[in-house]
Amino acid sequence: MARTRYASDRGLVAHMFGTMFGLGLLYVILIGVLVFFIKSAVIAIVIAGGLLFFQWYYSDTMAMRSMRAVEVTPEQAPQLHALIDRLCAMADMPKPRVAIADIDIPNAFATGRTPSRAVVCVTTGILRRLDVKELEGVLSHELSHVAHRDVTVMTLASFAGVLAGVLTRVFMFGGFGGRRDTRDQNAAMVLLVVMIVSVVIYFVSFLLTRSLSRYRELAADRAGALLTGNPSALATALQKVSGQIAAIPDRDLRAMQTVNAIAFAPAFTQKVSLSTLFMTHPPLEKRLEQLAKIAAQLGQS
Question: Of 134, 136, 142, 217, which residue is the catalytic one?
Answer without folding.
Answer: 142
